[in-house]
Amino acid sequence: MKNLFVLLSCICCFSCKPSIQQIDLSGTWEFTTDTSQWNQSLILPGSVTSNRLGEDISMSTPWTGTIVDSSFFFADKYAEYRTAENFKVPFWLQPEKYFRGEAWYKKTVEIPQNWDKYDVMLTLERCHWDTELWIDGSYAGSGHSLGTPHRYLLTQWLTPGKHELLLKVDNSLKTVNPGINSHSVTDHTQGNWNGVIGKIALEALPQIRINHLDIFPDIDHKKVKVELEALNSTSTAQEVTFKMEVGGRAFEKSQTLPTGTSPVYAEIEMGDSILLWDEFHPHLYQLNVHLSGTDGKELSHCSEQFGMRKLEVVQNHILINGRKVFFRGMLDCAAFPLTGYPSMDKEYWVKMFTNCRNHGLNHVRFHSWCPPEIAFQVADEMGFYLQIECSSWANQGITIGDGTSLDQFIRDESERMVREYGNHPSFCMMLYGNEPSGEKSTPYLADFVTHWKEKDTRRLYSTAAGWPNLPINDFLNDPTPRIQGWGQGLTSIINAEAPRTNYDWSNYVQQFNQPVISHEIGQWCVYPDFKEISKYTGLMKAHNFEIFRDDLKKNGMIHLADSFLLASGKLQALCYKADIEAALRTPDFGGFQLLGLYDFPGQGTALVGVLNVFGEEKGYISPEEYRQFCNTTVPLARLPKLIYTNNESLTASVEVAHFGDKQLSNPKLGWILSTDDGKTIGKGQWNANQISIGNNISLGNINFPLSGITEPKQLSLKVYVNDFENEWHIWVYPSTPRNQYADNDILVTNSLDNKAKEVLEKGGKVLLSLPKGKLRADMGGDIQIGFSSIFWNTAWTLGQAPHTLGILCNPHHPALSQFPTNYYSDYQWWDAMSYSNAIEMDKLAKGAQPIVRVIDDWFTNRSLGLITEFKVGKGKLVLSGIDFWQKMDERPAARQLLNSLKAYMSSEQFHPVQEIKSEDLQQLY
């Protein structure tokens, strides 16, 4: 049995496809979960659940994946979704049916008479995932790969005539557990499906054939090295000739092949005019190998595409073909909402990589899974750099390096993946997987990297995404360099420090001798788009979205759903801009990997994409806008602040990150400062003979006095390098706000004391500003507000701050006439959000409509007020959750907002409609 496993492991890594004939086995198969009865059928390629077989979803569904927030199983708010007729889970997309365990697939085949002189192989392109096979009742072997085809050499069983194939597929993780949250198997993303997809076929193979082909480009010496594995399954040695051709160059070699496998080595000169492969010029070559006998008759042939490229690390920089490269990447987390399993269609992958390119990206990390062959092919053609992982996230219930079956699986899986996909130039990096745990994980992963660096130099290697940072790594996937780290809450740069754009990660990365590619930056959430629900026309349903929508409707705000989406989306995009620009400003940085460009459907529902899970825009940022700050060439301004008073000067040092195809000669460089109505108030130009490849390339400085701005203004600073533009919003307020009201006409107070009540009873005006931290917990005081959007989501992080998604307002409301704003959070709201309480309006006054709302988490959907007006008896009140008391001499934005509110309260437009009693306001404290 042991020898059989070794043979089958080799077969599973077969890479050339020299079949003479094949029998397509796609179509109807008999199916059962109990071999004592066969009364069902299904269609392959497909899965049990894509065929609408399996069990109904229920409280006992054996999900594969950690559920951090288990409140669904007992909380009253979810009771209506725990009924059989209306069962809906909030954790992830929900399949119509579910199946986990052993499934049996049976089909009768007829082998042609002329196949008696060939080897017969069964190819199952993508299985999920453990397979075992019987032919006419006889055991024929097993397969255990998650990321490569399962192939069975069946010559001794499949003689000419009829035969029964019986295939068992087991998705229960009992043979190997790669980690229940691994994107290769988890219900958080593609789903733990059971089935076979892609090519399903029997193939007749020559008995003397090319069994495998490895191509090693050598651009320094302008040649390719070929390592070929030939197989002779006859009983006698054979004299053969290999003829190889690529790019008009040919090589010929004769050799004796004994029975079994034999290595064949060759080097082919490529000439002086080789075409290199990279993101700008994805030139591909095709190597054709012909194997013939002594009579000159062709016995076998093989064709493989490859690219002439060289990846290396030199002085902390990653170079491709000798040129610095900056990896601008996103994560692909294996989310396939229509099928519940990976797409095998070229159109899907073309769309995905096109979306990436349209948003300025050149790199994709496949988080704890390996995509199918077609993904590599499209990436080759389009010029994308791929990070591939060996199907595991050994954390939360499983470890790596501690002697479990997973250790050997990772070794074997990496060998299978490199053998299957190693010639693809897009296959640029390989890691074990994601964020490992285990007492012995470090030495195990160090050995993993050492092994591959010695064996195959065609790509770069690192231990794991996230950690550990070991000296043996070619590069590091490190989670530290980002504007919001896991667990930082309101202490992160974007939430704890006033808005600026002059920071980078140089102090952190300089401690390492390898390039750093920041791990899973972003994770900024947006409110759900409920219009998306109707798009789930396949296996998966967005019942999580339906739960959130129902809750919003119950709370009387369904009419605001689209506004919440757009406003939170604008803030999300702003957060991504800050994250990406910080990476681009960092000297000697390797790049970043976004989480993400697409939404992540699981882990509590992480709506972190500017594109939905179908790769469609949501309406609040275009690819063109995104490319301003994420592209091959990005102008960058280091601004010490974004909020000014008019007795200051706007200062900035301006630079560019340029990782284009070549240096820029005599570029057009300059800046423009304009008002929000498009009027230019300042501009300048710089001169440069050339801009080389790299970042931190200085263009010049800006020093513009703001004394000429007498009214509060939102300005736009635009910097351009040829046709590449980037811009930042800047706010200028009068150093001394101009009073447009009578101070003695408005009482500004921090409590509804007797004096405030007296003013209201007499028909006066009160501005009640709650000091931060003084709001009762059950009135919203337990809601942690920061400037940024929610990080990942509150369900998976167990309530990690911040808990909200920015503000929503009518920018034309007269209360904001002296505080320039749009309808969403921009940096002028950083101060207000940092010194604020979110008031639960329905607990205070049901149906109250705030002037400025705070957008709540979609799990709670509370009506939250930041600024609200009320009629109190004869008086008029503005209730502010913003603290206008602390450090006001240091808060120009707060002073200006307060001035704007007072101006409104002094105007004839101040006529609150919503009534509230003064005693009701007492419950705020």
Automatic annotation (TrEMBL):
Which SUPFAM superfamilies does the record cross-reference, listed alphabetically?
(Trans)glycosidases (SSF51445), beta-Galactosidase/glucuronidase domain (SSF49303), Galactose-binding domain-like (SSF49785)
Q: Which intervals hold domain Glycoside hydrolase family 2 catalytic? A: 312-461
**Uppermost EC category:** hydrolase
Keywords recorded for this protein, A-Z = Glycosidase, Hydrolase
UniProt-listed Pfam families: Glyco_hydro_2, Glyco_hydro_2_C
Domain called Glycoside hydrolase family 2 immunoglobulin-like beta-sandwich: residue spans: 209-309
Q: What are the EC numbers? A: 3.2.1.23
Which reactions are catalysed by this chain?
Answer: Hydrolysis of terminal non-reducing beta-D-galactose residues in beta-D-galactosides
Q: Which InterPro entries match?
A: Bact_Beta-galactosidase, Beta-gal/glucu_dom_sf, Galactose-bd-like_sf, GH, Glyco_hydro_2_cat, Ig-like_fold, Ig-like_GH2
The signal peptide, as residue positions, is none
The record, for PANTHER family, names:
BETA-GALACTOSIDASE
Spell out the family assignment given in the record's similarity comment: Belongs to the glycosyl hydrolase 2 family.
- In Swiss-Prot or TrEMBL terms, this protein is called beta-galactosidase
